[in-house]
DNA sequence: AACCCGGTTTCACTATTTGGGACACCAGAT
DNA sequence: ATCTGGTGTCCCAAATAGTGAAACCGGGTT
């Protein structure tokens, strides 16, 4: 099957599963809330939480009795981001692109069935940093998501499509695998994808996949706007950026989806 | 003792220990290199690596046979950063400060005996994002480090000082606990710290601690420059930023060092 | 052919993890 | 004061998962 973090790797797997669920809740949670999410019995979950806490992976606020992901994760993640993401390579080209188009620019990678944003440049002046690195989003209704799906080999595409929620965010959201396959064919033909207000009303974007020399999808770059102008105006700059990134990819070997 | 991620929390502890060491190496490493770092026997380390890999915490490049921290960390860290760091609160004030002084601005927190940078604003135009979030540095020879140490209660300061390397990075580096205590007293009196080219030649900075209502150190903000101007010029803006951050801290309860 | 080296696997032994259930605590209801 | 339901913590015999010395497997070298 697919990368699904199934919970079957012994104690470590369980611990990470619990950690993930706590992180997913997105706010400090009490033990009982963790229990509701946890597939493991009370005593087990409790011990797991304890272990994670004194490992610094979780932080327990003694007053409120709530758990939140700890700073040790941030330390470790820096290494991951620097070594395993496209971000360090793409950095200068995203800067260029951002300057050229003046709109918000995203760099994303596929993480299982979701889109994981790894870098971002803000539209114009103020830069709320990091805000997007590490964030995840749906693959079926974002520009970067569709751009990547379009160039995925069938064997990998099928399971990913099977896992989408197909929630209708806006009237334009594509909500069936069949419609999606048609859309992906078009994207493949054109070489780039559009998000025509499919995720958020008023937000449109144009995205292109970053492919390795062997044609494997490594990520995608997008230009997002809430203005009225034609998206195709951004195409040249976008294409230039993606081309340069792909070029620099040369000697980088990147994850195979972990597919076994 | 202190927070030291000792390796004594069962399997999970061992796994995280290994993961940390891989991350610390800062580049993809082969199994044998991990072995050199690992306190555990070959077979154990091997199995740990396997587990971590198919949990997505590590990424194994099949061609080169090297391990690197995986993207799952980035996902989880986003939650940690958003919930457990000062960054979300400080965001707008760092923007202001950055604009006001036009120099590089850092936000850091104490993580054990080290300084952990959680956010950054670049000097002028181009913004190499994230580059610093998650990075660690020495506490005894950075502005933010000294600013935080100065306001640490003795019980917490002692073990931290005991763990510093006291490596002499530049002629100005303070290299003894005694000298450091004198320096910290001055900082405490002044309310802010200077880094007078103690870490890197040509780089100076001024830093102030962020204190909670109860006077606990929560982090520090610094303005760094490689120019010649007097650092004190930045004091007003820096003080303003720190004051506002402290103000917003109000209802936030933050980690106790975990000290037990 | 004998040897070394990094990586992988085996398997009997053992330490850790498991989880049902007991317990302690608190707040509100009776 | 006493009961009661919700939470968080702890125990301990049984079950499981982890351990690690040693063997094994190519593929280079000598």
TrEMBL record, chains A, B:
The record's annotation in PROSITE patterns points to: HTH_ICLR, ICLR_ED
Whether Ubl conjugation counts among this entry's keywords is no
Single GO molecular function: DNA binding
Pfam families, from UniProt?
A: HTH_IclR (PF09339), IclR_C (PF01614)
Task: Tell me where in this chain the IclR-ED domain is found.
Answer: 72-251
User: What Gene3D superfamilies does the entry give?
Assistant: 3.30.450.40, Winged helix-like DNA-binding domain superfamily/Winged helix DNA-binding domain (1.10.10.10)
Q: Could you tell me the keywords of this UniProt record?
A: DNA-binding, Transcription, Transcription regulation
* InterPro entries assigned: GAF-like_dom_sf, HTH_MetabolicPath_Reg, Tscrpt_reg_IclR_C, Tscrpt_reg_IclR_N, WH-like_DNA-bd_sf, WH_DNA-bd_sf
Q: Name one GO biological process term.
A: negative regulation of DNA-templated transcription
| Domain of life the protein comes from | Bacteria
Q: Which PANTHER family match?
A: HELIX-TURN-HELIX TRANSCRIPTIONAL REGULATOR, ICLR FAMILY, HTH-TYPE TRANSCRIPTIONAL REPRESSOR ALLR
Identification of the protein by name: DNA-binding IclR family transcriptional regulator
From which organism does this entry originate?
Jannaschia seohaensis
């Amino acid at each position: 099957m697919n990368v699904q973090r199934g919970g079957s790797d012994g104690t470590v797997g369980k611990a990470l599963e619990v950690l993930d669920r706590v992180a997913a809740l997105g706010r400090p949670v009490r033990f009982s809330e963790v229990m509701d999410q946890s597939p493991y019995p009370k005593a087990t979950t409790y011990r797991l939480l304890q272990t994670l806490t004194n490992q610094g992976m979780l932080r327990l606020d003694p007053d409120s009795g709530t758990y939140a992901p700890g700073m040790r994760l941030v330390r470790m993640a820096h290494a991951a981001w620097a070594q395993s993401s496209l971000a360090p390579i793409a950095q200068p080209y995203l800067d260029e692109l951002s300057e050229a188009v003046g709109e918000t620019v995203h760099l994303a990678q596929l993480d299982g069935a979701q889109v994981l944003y790894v870098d971002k440049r803000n539209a114009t002046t103020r830069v709320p940093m990091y805000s997007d690195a590490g964030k995840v989003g749906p693959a079926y209704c974002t520009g970067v998501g569709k751009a990547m799906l379009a160039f995925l080999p069938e064997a990998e595409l099928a399971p990913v499509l099977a896992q989408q929620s197909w929630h209708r965010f806006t009237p334009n959201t594509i909500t069936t695998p069949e419609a999606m396959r048609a859309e992906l064919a078009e994207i493949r033909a054109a070489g780039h994808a559009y998000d025509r207000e499919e995720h958020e009303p008023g937000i449109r974007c144009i995205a292109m996949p970053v492919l390795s020399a062997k044609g494997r999808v490594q990520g995608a770059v997008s230009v997002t706007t809430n203005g009225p102008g034609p998206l195709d105006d951004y195409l040249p700059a976008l294409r230039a950026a993606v081309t340069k990134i792909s070029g620099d990819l040369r000697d980088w070997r990147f994850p195979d989806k972990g597919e076994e």
